[in-house]
Amino acid sequence: MKDILSELEARREDARQGGGARRIEAQHAKGKLTARERIELLLDEDSFEEFDMFVAHRCADFGMQAQRPAGDGVVTGWGTINGRMVYVFSQDFTVFGGSLSETHAQKICKIMDMAVQNGAPVIGINDSGGARIQEGVASLAGYAEVFQRNIMASGVVPQISVIMGPCAGGAVYSPAMTDFIFMVKDTSYMFVTGPDVVKTVTNEVVTAEELGGASTHTKKSSVADGAFENDVEALAEVRRLVDFLPLNNREKPPVRPFFDDPARAETSLDTLIPANPNTPYDMKELIHKLADEGDFYEIQEDFAKNIVTGFVRLEGQTVGVVANQPMVLAGCLDIDSSRKAARFVRFCDAFEIPILTLVDVPGFLPGTSQEYGGVIKHGAKLLFAYGEATVPKVTVITRKAYGGAYDVMASKHLRGDFNYAWPTAEIAVMGAKGATEIIHRGKSPEEIEAETKHYEDRFANPFVAAEKGFIDEVIMPRNTRKRVARAFASLRGKQLQNPWKKHDNIPL
Amino acid sequence: MFKKILIANRGEIACRVIKTARKMGIKTVAIYSDADKQALHVQMADEAVHIGPPPANQSYIVIDKVMAAVKETGAEAVHPGYGFLSENAKFAEALEAAGVAFIGPPKGAIEAMGDKITSKKIAQDANVSTVPGYMGLIADADEAVKISNEIGYPVMIKASAGGGGKGMRIAWTDEEAREGFQSSKNEAASSFGDDRIFIEKFVTQPRHIEIQVLCDKHGNGIYLGERECSIQRRNQKVIEEAPSPFLDEATRKAMGEQAVALAQAVDYASAGTVEFIVDGDRNFYFLEMNTRLQVEHPVTELITGVDLVEQMIRVANDEKLSMAQSDVKLHGWAMESRLYAEDPYRGFLPSIGRLTRYRPPAETESYSPGVTPSAPVVRNDTGVYEGGEISMYYDPMIAKLCTWGADRAEAIEEMRLALDRFEVEGIGHNLPFLSAVYDHPKFISGDMTTAFIEEEYPDGFEGVTLERGALARIAAAAAAMNRVAEIRRTRVSGRMDNHERRVGTDWVVTLQGESFTVTIDADHEGATVSFDDGSNHRVESDWTPGQPLAVLMVDGAPLVLKVGKLPGGFRLRTRGAELKVHVRPPRQAELAALMPEKLPPDTSKMLLCPMPGLIVKVDVEVGQEVQEGQALCTIEAMKMENILRAEKRSVVSKINAGAGDSLAVDDVIMEFE
């Protein structure tokens, strides 16, 4: 009996060794941790329960039958993050370069099926050279099986991808369909075709880092939602993100004890809006001063900075924030910012996370590059996302809310629950000067100036909108946290259903 | 007594004057420029008059505008504060002509002391000690030696036309005087085409010590002790204290009496300051007299219990001094730290912008100017508030933090804690630098000269490196704080019943490149943090996660930390040090140690944008060779054009931004080969 027990221990030990000491050392030398070490950092201490530790591939070609390491290049299982269940898979670069075989894919699919069935997030740690070439189409089939599960799980449980090494070719499409992608600077990259193929086909010379490194995907392509300095930092921050997210679409967002007065007044907000309407200010100051304990988890911080998205807590409960950022491009909406915010709004709506919208928007960015790029349809994405969202929606207009952009930014007309405005708000079709020039076309510059003043006096305030009930209340900036927190508190029982449909047809 | 006074100033000094006026039942009038519409002094005053655009030469120092404000409001007297019109005889004259009292000295005194040569002459006539020297032409080396002997060594031999150290020699002996004279003369002839030479006493180990005098219009004058202002950066005072740790009673008396004699020689009537330079042997020499309320007057108020502003108002109201010299008693010790909106990490470059956070340490409620303290005092004279704007138009000093203690050590300790508690965010400021000075051994021993900052921080200020003992205390605090934060994280909703996370007791704290292995034993009052070397620290605190300021007791002594977030850790600031702190369970620490150290990118070959702004123009092209000091590009920030120049000779290899681009701090504008 004792021998049998020790046989298990020996087999386990063998599986834990992955690709062996030499490859583990090489992994460390690259500044990367092993698949198991990453799981240790991601999950609560001693909470990991492994599946399929002894799974081995079934490939008999190219001499592969001689090497059948236990686990087959991916570690899968479940554990807890601060006591809440998550499923995890972590690709092991030390075993066949983390390449995906039929059995490797089956392991991933197994935990994804369980995650959907049991209602817990899936966190995938990607570090893989790509398809297991020796297996050919069986490997491709494996990818597709994973893709199908990503699609089915989307909107049911949160899916988070952490790219901690190579992720190339077809492999990128699994992370691409998850909710969030995080990358590690200098040690991870993602692309559909690598630098060599790029060189052959288009003659462009580009490094892997330039083509698909963390900087490229967080700043240029917006494929990734954030980047971190190293594995340890990345996994600590993923834990922090999970604390904000519900486990599945049937649960309310999590609540945790908080040490911040919901009625905390911030007198400095009374002077946040500069005297000159063309002077920018930092909308993030408002976000930090509204949030419990000033804690803000920003998503896509480095992309389309004219809109800010991320999570805060109010009275301990998660709230998604979308805010125009006057510091960048005057906070206007354009193709990139619309796409970024639309995706964020849809995530929040899918997982019952209430949405706070902070508005200071002068309109859509004009220009041929925008029109040719299809700003009409991209802008419509945000409009669509806000309009279909049934979660609690609270909006605060701090300054400008001009034109169609006013409608888009969670206006009353898109079923906003609470639409507040600061006394500094200006809700109008356009800026006073432009409006006057149209209304009073042909008049002298002096007359236009006088009429502009008249227009400003009449419309450069929140009261016209408030008279019509489009603004529920004009609030003191200093009391914004209290008003917003109370608004969300009152909406905890909100029930709203869209008409039955197979699915909508958002302008993709 | 006056019913209403106007304060012809802004910022903290206007607020300071308003406080005393209010105490005396006098109504106050503020004046303000466009930039100060929402300023604190405007909010505090009973009335406020707008006097023009932001630049001072179009508002605060335009006599006609101030006079118009006086007439409009019917103010009976004007307090000028410091700077602006405070030492402007024409202003005093205009007020006199209008029959309005000037809360300052008579215009004759302002004029007499306003000119360096005249004031030195008056001082000599009043038997005030001045720097000995010979102003006439010196014929040859023999005469130079003779004069040097008369003055007494060491002497400074200087070219009349000199500057920048050229043609300047210091001589300690006859021989050096002879040589120095000759070489100075030659150098002066070749450098300036003017070989005239003069000799004056060289003051060794110079300290800046000044005497506060107070005179009425009835011939009474007293001195209120001294202030030591040796901690200066480029003639800008940074830290002042009273009394001076260097003076003895006899020197104090001699300096005080000479200061009063000088004041009386010009019929001085108000508060005034006589500045001296004092050498290592306590010889003192008159420098100049400031005929106004001095910035650093609070330290004198703290150790004398006299409200100087009140005295100035009373003197202006023709009252007699209510105290004699024998009534002046120096009591305890006071320190003043000037908080400047200057970034010490960027060569003390002025920093402007919005004060997103401004929380000074709590002031001692029982104290106000005119009170003699009996227990430690914190006083903060300020002219700004959270949410206010620091503009580029005025002095970058935003507050004066003062502490009082029974002795120097206590005043210093109070100051250290007060600085740690002072929260300022949104702009660059010198709080870390101030903290560093209060922990500097030379400063602590009182052994300083006016060259202190230059000598002790020759390469600028790069933050404080703490020694291991101090780090251990902080590590203990961080471990205890982290435990509280981690336990809270485990209380999130949606947990798996019976499988909750248990927060462990063993941790590794890393900070400033050091790591500490600790075990936490927590109880209801706090935590005992044991280190693997057998030592332990007791930490007590009511800090809760998210609080930006942690006030802890570590082993019974206070520790104040500014707490910020970092990915996976804390950013802690204390005592001028900025620490990235990580607290991890041992296994995680082991894995973290495997992570490669990433060096910050080398920016020495880049031109970084020093402030958020708009590029107006780029003056160079790729491939162009640039010389040191050559203009590279112009950035407009807050309506002001700033020209960025090359720091050294180099070739432009890449330009990343063009005219019209708006940049953030540290964006790379161009790169060099």
From TrEMBL, chain A:
What is an example of a GO molecular function annotated in this UniProt entry?
acetyl-CoA carboxylase activity
Q: Which family does it belong to?
A: Belongs to the AccD/PCCB family.
CoA carboxyltransferase N-terminal domain mapped to chain residues:
1-257
The CoA carboxyltransferase C-terminal domain extends over 264-502
Which terms does the UniProt entry file under GO BP? Answer: carbon fixation; fatty acid biosynthetic process
One Pfam annotation, family name?
Carboxyl_trans
Q: Which PROSITE patterns match?
A: COA_CT_CTER, COA_CT_NTER
Q: What is this protein called?
A: Propionyl-CoA carboxylase beta chain
Which Gene Ontology terms of cellular component type are present?
acetyl-CoA carboxylase complex
Which InterPro entries does the UniProt record give?
A: AccD/PCCB, AcCoA_carboxyl_beta, Acetyl_CoA_COase_Trfase_b_su, ClpP/crotonase-like_dom_sf, COA_CT_C, COA_CT_N
The record's keywords, sorted A to Z, are:
Ligase, Transferase
Q: Which organism is it from?
A: Candidatus Rhodobacter oscarellae
Domain of life, per the record? Bacteria
TrEMBL record, chain B:
For this protein, the record's InterPro entries field holds:
ATP-grasp, BC-like_N, Biotin_BS, Biotin_carboxylase_complex, Biotin_carboxylation_dom, Biotin_COase_C, Biotin_lipoyl, CPAse_ATP-bd
Query: Where in this chain does the record put each Lipoyl-binding domain?
Result: 594-673
MF GO annotations: ATP binding; metal ion binding; propionyl-CoA carboxylase activity
Catalyses:
propanoyl-CoA + hydrogencarbonate + ATP = (S)-methylmalonyl-CoA + ADP + phosphate + H(+)
What is any one GO biological process for this UniProt entry?
A: lipid catabolic process
So, what pathway does this thing act in? Answer: Metabolic intermediate metabolism; propanoyl-CoA degradation; succinyl-CoA from propanoyl-CoA: step 1/3
What's the cofactor?
biotin
Where in the numbering of this chain does the ATP-grasp domain appear? 120-317
Q: Any idea which UniProt keywords this protein has?
A: ATP-binding, Biotin, Ligase, Lipid degradation, Lipid metabolism, Magnesium, Manganese, Metal-binding, Nucleotide-binding
Q: Could you tell me which NCBIfam families the record lists for this protein?
A: PRK08591.1 (NF006367)
**PANTHER family per the UniProt record, alphabetical:** CARBOXYLASE:PYRUVATE/ACETYL-COA/PROPIONYL-COA CARBOXYLASE (PTHR18866), METHYLCROTONOYL-COA CARBOXYLASE SUBUNIT ALPHA, MITOCHONDRIAL-RELATED (PTHR18866:SF33)
Return the protein name: propionyl-CoA carboxylase
Native source organism of the sequence: Candidatus Rhodobacter oscarellae
